[in-house]
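Input.
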Amino acid sequence: MKQKLLFAFLFLIIIGLGVSQSPVFVYASDTCYVDEDADNDGDGSDDEPFKDIDEALDEDCARIIVRDGTYDESIVIGEDVSVEGKSRDSVKITGAITMKNGAQMSGVTVSGKSGIDVDEDAEIEIEDCTIVGADIGITTVAGNGKVTVNDTKIYDGNKGLYLQSGTTVKMTGCEVYDNDEEGVDIRSNVDGTISGNTISGNGESGIEVILGKADLLISDNKIKKNGASGIATQYYKGTGKSGAVKIKSNTITDNNDFGMNCKTPSGGNPGKEFWEATLNMSSNKLSGNKDGDFAPDCSLSESTVADASMTQKQKDQAAEEQKKKEEEARLLAEKKKQNLTKQQIEEEEARLAAEEAEQAKLRETMQKDTGLKTTAQTAIDVMQTAYDADVSAVAHAQERNAFIMFLIGPRMSDVKEIEERAEIYAKESEAAQQAIVGMDDQTNKHVLQSQVDDLLKKREDIATFVAQQRKEFSLFGWMFN
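Output.
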């Protein structure tokens, strides 16, 4: 009996040693380690890490700790899996990243065009990361997903974040800057919080949001120096008129269009009350925005505009002061009625009415001029773009040397391209001229007219060049053009 037990014990030892030395034995743990300098046969342990992140994902590791290095791979972070880089300054992933429900990522830099895609209906977290050079930094899918992004930089891409319908967002402490389009692009029916971020230097608006069914708090952000407006709110037909967007305690400065813009890209008229009913604004600081702090299309009342940049304490003080003024006015009116004849009362009322009418006319003129200025500048920008294209075509045409010109003539494709743009100049210059004529502000009229005249003069020079090209003699040009 003792001899049988001894044989059994020795057999178990031999089997155990064999399994531990077998090449198919894998280190089993909820936490795995990855190091680009590791050997190819690592088991994911601290001492023998995997070489690739994808290896750790294939082994169903719940927590993946990534050491310094550049990982040229595309990965799918599975459900309830956490990928943790040692430092976003020293851990870089260059491929596409997809995050499924419960996925978390921190301490890494994501570079390349693909950015981060959030799976449908997924609830994910991104913290202390950098996303650079992506077409879209973070993209959600329409559905019921939830995206939490903290302390993350998104820059030098095409668009920072693209949050589609049904997404719940919590975005705090992030920097979104120097992207070609919007910093944050929010579709309809998105809710959550965007707070404490810096959104600057993006090619279009800092934040663009479709208001239909939106329930958002946009607060304590610095939104500055963006190529269009600081915050661009939009109404689309078919997305519904309901919405509740709180815009509170933001600093909105030095943007190229308006601080706060209101647009209807698909047409339609939501009504003047729509913007006031949907936007709840308070305690914001707006200044230095090129076209003004609030777009005329927002149709905001003077009190709403004042409230947008006032704290609650200031609002209470203003209400108290207004109440006091109204009481003083009432007492004064009573006194005047006691002392004035009926004719004097009528004269005074007429004077006050005339003053109010003059002020209303002045406000209307300013709003009209702002709209006409925007129309004229848009037409001028289109003319400038056409001129830039003409200059490029002229340069291309001039690259043909004299001998080739003699044989086959000028590049007629460039000449025809320039001629086709003549219609753009005619159409846009007419639009600009009509807008300029309708303006009352002489300073703006002069500046805009000078820009139009300058571009038309430059176009004449281009036309002269085209005419010269048409006259160029060549032996065989008729065969190639």
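The CA atoms of residues 213 and 242 lie 5 Å apart.
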